[in-house]
User: What shape does this take?
Amino acid sequence: MRLDDASHSSFKISEIRAAHIRAARALLDWSIEDLANRSGISISSIRRLESGETSSIRERTLVAIEAALTTNGVIFEKRGDIVSVATYFLGAAPRD
Assistant: This one.
């Protein structure tokens, strides 16, 4: 389930940072491998992104990662200049 466009009105996919992805994975109790499997993005690309190497990361990579995370309960919310990461359910998502 994704938030409606009104909730994401000021959030831009390019604002997702390494710390947001790591936090989202922690909230879901996912490994990098779990995120790779659910997003279709390679493990090496996710590792590069999470290490802060963003020069070679394409927008479609961020879109796929954001989609995998948000369809599994993660919310990216922007308030002012701060992007926060949360879940809309209690407890970790079940692992496959």
Notes: The two ends are 18 Å apart (CA to CA). The mean pLDDT is 82. The chain is about 40% helix and 10% strand. The longest helix spans residues 59-70.
